[in-house]
Design a protein that fits this description.
2 copies of one chain form a homodimer. Chain A is of the alpha/beta class. Chain A has helices spanning 17-26, 37-53, 68-79, 91-102, 147-156, 204-215, 226-233, 244-260, 262-282, 309-318, 345-357, and strands spanning 4-5, 61-65, 83-88, 106-111, 131-135, 137-138, 143-144, 161-165, 182-186, 198-202, 286-288, 300-305, 321-322, 324-325, 334-338. Chains A and B meet through helix 1, helix 3, helix 4 and helix 8 of A and helix 1, helix 3, helix 4 and helix 8 of B.
Chain lengths: 360, 360
């Protein structure tokens, strides 16, 4: 039986992926050398497609890593000497802090209750913090930091580097990337691609910081340090043999999304999120975990469940819908539903109907 | 026009890969959660297939990274406090040394002339070196360290950790992995898979070393430190969202190779290598770059060219054969030809004939 995946990543593939994979095989994309002109052309097309879709400033660089998890590590290695500051609103923002701690950074934080976000107005960040880490969309709780908050944080802390996690919200989130110094996402979320690729956006302030760390004789990593990534990046190459298929597919899907229209994708995402949240409100066994409406994620929706979540997951599974359980300690108490660009209005409406049929 | 790739990786896909990719799409392998039982099953099957194909000791662990380049970094972070020692016989063994230097390790070396290997009998390694890095098959020059040398090095240096690079020789190289403490390879070489996955084999001495570095309050990395990899690995998971397709395909192809028979694959590899080296010897424009027959790689064959290599590459390209140019400073002076398990005897024979047709 064909299944439909609403898991918060990996999830249902973007509807054009299968065709692009077949073309990749036909065009020998998986056999070409990563030092060939053929690869450089693919690399460049993907970079340009992402730059255009996200409306990135011209002087921001785009690099490929193996995962967003890797990017957390590379940000710490390359841009922090002693102190980082993390806005924590769930398991993934906390994971970034833990990676900073692994590198013996003084990782400070302000922690919001789960399901909430740290209010921008209430932020207390020491001047000594070199980096401020903000998770725009926390995949574990479905709490989302309003885009306006980014501007407020930038204004209040002009000297710090700001790192923005858009792992499960790009390209839906309408972010002005010139407000942050670095941002990153994974391709298996909104882009609907096979996992195994992280995308790292970096401005020149990050390079300057990496250079200053090097001048102090500090280790900034090796093949994936910013200078190493840049050296190959300007040639549309990567330091290592990359996930060529991932780079190829990302370029194709980003182009498909641009052709469809990012505004259209955003409108549809908001409509579908409203349908699902309405179902959460109307259901007798569900309610939105995030109480404040402005903080509710439009791409990864989380609901409290009055019955064990596995019963809901199991009932939907009979209808061939696969949704996610809660994260960590919420495993049995939450369901998590992805609302990514590949999820059609029709499927979301049917899913909402099925959710409403499940009674206590 | 259909092309045949004899590039030294990425190269021609193993002949079953396309079918396995189609099955992966059908079976929703690219949509399943990396924390699901479905993923754990795939992970376990791949681990078992690799363990069986390479005849690994039971207490050796297998981890997935994004590339062999990453593994160089992780080995240094996790197993070296102050001193490493590298047998250098080309660009890739040198790259490992450079990564050690990036991490401010005192990286010592013994350097063989290009096209040769460091003779095991002539090794002078200080007792203080914690790790000895040996490149079994140097992809840049086609020089291969005889398997017997590994045993000699193990015997002479029982206390050091030995890291063996089998990036472009596993599973052809008939290595007794109990002779080394860690080994690693890339999937886009002999396994004929899409790039984007490195396989890291690690014994318990490496874990003990990582623990002792931690006890000394030294940073051993974060999500891909050995303790972090082990914590998830025992559950057949990975710390980050992995390249699920890569893990799936590796398991399938390793199983296909086991079914064909590793002895059969080794015999065919040796026959095909003999055909190609004979063509190098007979050609008026080619000669094997590695002068010593026992040091000639059977999987990545390199020849000096009497005419610019691009002319040879271009002529073969007209016959739809794609071969590699020389590495680095040898770009125009060498050709490099992969002889991987997917390359059939028939294709290698035709390629040898075509090589012989090219005159000065």
């Amino acid at each position: 039986m064909r299944k439909f995946y609403f898991t918060p990543g990996p999830s249902q593939l973007y509807y054009t992926v299968e065709e692009h994979m077949k073309n990749a095989l036909k065009e020998n994309v998986l056999s070409i050398s990563h030092r060939s002109k053929d690869y450089e052309k693919i690399h460049q097309q993907t970079i340009e497609a992402i730059r255009s879709l996200l409306v990135l400033p011209n002087d921001y660089h785009i690099f490929f890593t193996s995962s967003a998890t890797e990017i957390w590590e590379r940000i710490i290695q390359n841009t922090v000497e002693a102190e980082s500051f993390h806005l924590i609103n769930g398991a993934f923002s906390r994971r970034f802090l833990e990676i900073a701690e692994n590198y013996q950074i003084n990782a400070m934080s302000q922690v919001a209750e789960e399901g909430k976000v740290v209010e921008a107005e209430e932020l207390l960040i020491p001047e000594t913090a070199e980096l401020i880490a903000v998770t725009q969309n926390e995949t574990s709780t479905g709490a989302s930091q309003p885009i306006d908050d980014i501007k407020k944080i930038r204004k209040a802390f002009p000297d710090q580097l700001i790192a923005l996690d858009v792992v499960s919200s790009a390209p839906y989130a309408n972010v002005d990337y010139s407000m942050v110094d670095t941002a990153y996402f994974s391709v298996q979320k909104c882009f609907g691609l096979p996992a195994g690729l992280g995308v790292w956006i970096v401005n020149n302030r990050c390079f300057q910081k990496a250079q200053s760390l090097m001048n102090k004789n500090r280790t900034i990593g090796s093949y994936h340090s910013l200078p190493s990534l840049l050296e190959k990046g300007i040639k549309n190459q990567t330091p290592e043999t990359p996930n060529v298929l991932g780079v190829y597919l990302l370029g194709k899907v980003a182009t498909d999304m641009a052709n469809k229209g990012i505004d259209q994708i955003r409108r549809e995402t908001e409509y579908k999120a409203a349908v699902l949240y309405q179902a959460f409100e109307q259901s007798e066994i569900l309610q939105p975990f995030v109480t404040s409406e402005v903080h509710r994620s439009k791409t990864t929706l989380v609901a409290n469940t009055a019955i064990p979540s596995k019963e809901i997951i199991s009932k939907l599974s009979e209808k061939s819908f696969v949704i996610g359980n809660g994260y960590g300690k919420f495993k049995d108490k939450h369901i998590r539903i992805a609302n990514f660009p590949t999820h059609s209005k029709e499927h979301i409406e049917i899913l909402a109907d099925e959710l409403l049929k499940i009674k206590n």
